[in-house]
Amino acid sequence: MPTVGTGISPDVLATALQELMPAYSELFSKWHPVLDRIINKGNMDRSTLKGPFREFAVVTGGPGQVTQIVTGSEVVAGGRNQNAYRGDTYAPRLIYAFDVPGKDLAEANGEMDLARIIQHYPELALSDFHERIAEQFAQGTGTGVGGFVTLNGDTTYSPNGAARQGPIRFESRVAQEAAGVSRFGLDSGTVSGWYNQWADVPAAGFAASNGRSIMRDVYFKCARQMKTMGPVDLMLGDEASYLNYLDSLDTQVRIISETTKGGDRAPKQVRQGIKFLDADFYLEDSIDISNAVWGAAATDGVIYYLNTAVWFAYTLGHNASRETKGDFAVRGPFRIPEQDLFRYEIVLNMGIHTNQLRANGAVTGSAVP
Predict the structure, then answer these.
(1) Domain map (residue ranges) of the chain
(2) Nearest CA among 89, 58, 104 for reference residue 333
(3) Would the pTM count as exceeding 0.90?
């Protein structure tokens, strides 16, 4: 005869999930390194905004001009150059809801059944939510989370109901300025310096075109834009581009491993990332270059270059029991009227933006061997 379960309260399930949430969120930030880097650099703001969006300053040049004195009678030119602009960014409010049948809770018997329910419902729900956000950020195709920012400049996201262009474009500075693309509320056609770096690996392929040299060129173009914030520290690429870079290192890594103790520069923990100069290069599973969302240049591979010191994240909300703090926070349970179901919600109310677009960039065409 089957054992009759003693039952588990819906609140017990909610409490268990609340206790597990910090660890789950930590796993997400480690698994997706962008958020991890932003938090570690102190660029996560949890303060309450005074409105539905955030404004931030962008400075693209000096405020004055220089006069050379030769005879002493020259007039010193003054004035003020308008090189300070204000961008804006919205934090979409995203709610992942899932229902747990009261029957499952009633039939649960002890800690083992509680663990099983947590695995079947909250854990899988949070994992699914994380994967959707990661896919949206990398290429703009996350199901149901189209309001969250995407890096992909070939597509748009809609944080407040209106479409906005992804910030990283796969074209030259001249083309970006000519097109006058608006990113984070600033038009690259009118705001001097509001563009990202970019280069394309020729059709001959990564090996024949010395793809590593092209990668270095974009890296240093990004680095030259910032004096005190450091160079690019994070790169995300599709699988083929990542493997092409690894293949290009094979001989070098073998020689270094044989001629130095322990092969200090040999790549370690490949799935966690590999060094490219001072940046960590990660394979991003969410970048699918066969997806129709990519433009012509990126269909042959894409590698993002990010200086995370100039990226900022913020969340909305301050009452954990009502609107939540918006950081993958759990809310519930709520009994659904006329049904034997208890609803739980995971709430994300987060925005991400940069104030120095030209310190970031991309390489395309890198997936061709």
Answers:
(1) 10-60+80-364
(2) 104
(3) no
